[in-house]
Amino acid sequence: MSDYNPWYDPAEEIKEQTEHENARIKAHMKLMHINDDNKYGRCGGCGADLEPVWCEEKEWINGTYTGRVRSNVNYLICPVCLKKECVDDSFAGPWRNK
Q1: DSSP letter at 38?
Q2: Environment class of residue 63 by beta-carbon count within 10 Å: exposed (0-12), middle (13-18) or buried (19+)?
Q3: Best CA proximity match to 41, nearest among 73, 7, 3
């Protein structure tokens, strides 16, 4: 008996395999906290997306509080392996009156 099927389309089988593979990759990326639109970079250890840890910084001039504050990224942390990455002042927001 022959396995010949006149309605068999190999392109459909390849399409199903590709969709299954894409779903598997997306599930893995979600598990590893990986997004395509990450603006903070990836962890050097495990490859997961780094997340910012925000703080509010008060402005002090000559020991006197001026009443102005700004939001600042204290450091970046990996949610998977908990590795911390230092940042500079380029992540700081503008000063504003509180």
Answers
A1: -
A2: exposed
A3: 73
Residue 78 near residue 46 (C-beta atoms within 8 A): yes
Q: Report the candidate in 38, 18, 16, 19 with the shortest Cα–Cα distance to residue 29.
A: 38
Output the tens digit of pLDDT for each of the chain's 98 residues: 567 777 767 777 777 778 778 777 777 766 666 666 778 888 888 888 888 898 888 889 998 998 899 888 889 998 888 999 888 877 777 778 87
Q: How many residues does the chain have?
A: 98
Residue 52 bridge partners (DSSP): 76
